[in-house]
Amino acid sequence: MLALVLDDAEMNNLVMAASLRPLAGCVPQAFTVPAEALGFAQAHASEIGVVITDYEMPGMNGIEFIRAVRRVPGLAHVPTVMVTSHDQRSLRREALEAGATDFLTKPADAVEIRARVTNLLALSEAHRAQRDHAAQLAREVAAAVALVEEREREIVSTLMRAAEHRDSDTGDHIARVSAYVGLIAEAMGLSAADVRQISLAATMHDVGKIAVPDAILLKPGALTPEERRVMEQHADRGQRILGGSASPVMRLAADIAGSHHERWDGAGYPYGLKGEAIPLSGRIVAVADVFDALTTQRPYKQAWSPERARAHLAENAGSHFDPRVVDAFLSRWSQIQTFLHLGLDGHRIATAA
Question: Fewer beta carbons below 10 Å: N end or C end of the chain?
Answer without folding.
Answer: C
